Amino acid sequence: MSEVRVEFWGTRGSIPSPGPKTLRYGGNTSCVCIRWGDQVYICDAGTGIRPLGFHLANSGAPTSGHVFIGHTHWDHIQGFPFFFPAYLPQNKWAIHSAKGVGDSFEAIFRRQMGINYFPVEVGDMAATLDFSQVDGRPFNAGPGKVSTIYTNHPGICVGYRFDMDGRSVVYLTDHETHWTHMGRSEYSERLDREVADFCRGADLLICDSQYTDAEYEKKRGWGHSRWRDTVALALDAEVKRLSLFHHDPERSDDMIDAITAEASDLVGKSAKSLLVASAREGENIIL
Ligand SMILES: [Zn+2]
Ligand SMILES: [Zn+2]
What's the number of domains the chain is made of? Predict the structure, then answer.
């Protein structure tokens, strides 16, 4: 059974955040690469996809595969124009996402490289790019099974679950816990339960954890979760490992360390075994 390797190339949300305070957890926006045998699954094309692209091209690894975009907010697509493997004619990339508001995913994705935004258009990229819209039904990416769920985020956004020969990874970012957003009700609890069921038993959950409690009070409805609710989700869904993800651009390395320690305490008080850490750019997790 070939190993599943999860590589973090960008762990930040909202906007790239380089500087001395973000050196350890990184400043690039969302990009995670899952390598499984000869399969390459890339989750989001934030600025982290740029170094990933060079790495793939230089390491002799296959530079074809699948790109799964949660949604087309800037922090999740802005690295794609700099994704070197998309410029090589021998490569083929399947690019998946949900239909956007009022426009197809492909139209929105192409627009970010329109003449007023970027000097090179998607059509000038030499690789074969196949766009496909997810529709809620599971589908296959090579031998892997991919499931999707709509997240609670302004506009349209999906989370992905990858089931790979007995191993599973859930990539669920840009998601706000339903009950904190709309109050406790049968409805919000049902929606949160659906999210937990989607994550159920995963080997790794990579999940939106953008806010502290105090920040959340000012940013309710912005489409992101408090880290403590993400820990609660992971415990509820009985996942094995949790990577807190989509760090706020204002979050320094030291603050992330403090959150990770608090999150570990929270897990320690539960009767469950969950490995919790904050996703760090450059980190690899082997499943
Ligand atoms: Zn985001
Ligand atoms: Zn977003």
Answer: 1
pTM for the whole thing? 0.97
Looking at residue 61, its pLDDT comes to: 73
Query: What's the gap in Å between 158 CA and the centre of ligand 2?
Result: 10
Q: Mean pLDDT over residues 188-208, rounded? A: 98
**Cα(12) to centroid(ligand 2), Å:** 12
Q: Which residues of 116-130 are buried (b: 16+ CB within 10 A; e: fewer)?
A: eeeeeebeebebebe
DSSP assignment string, 205-217: EEEE--B-HHHHH
Report the pLDDT averaged over residues 3-30.
98
* Distance between Cα 90 and ligand 1 center (Å): 31
d(CA 28, CA 48): 5
Q: Which ligand is nearest to the CA of 13?
A: 1
How far is ligand 2, taken at its centre, from the CA of residue 52, in Å?
A: 21
Tell me the HSE value of 42 on the side-chain side, using a 13 A CA sphere: 31
Closest ligand by atom to 210 CA: 1
Residue 103 Cα to ligand 2 middle (Å): 17
Backbone angles phi, psi at 199, to 5 degrees: -85, -10
| Residue 163 CA, ligand 2 centroid: distance in Å | 25
* Ligand 1 centroid to residue 13 C-alpha, Å: 5
Give the domain range for residue 85. 4-286
pLDDT of residue 63: 81
Q: What is the CATH number of the domain that holds 29?
A: 3.60.15.10
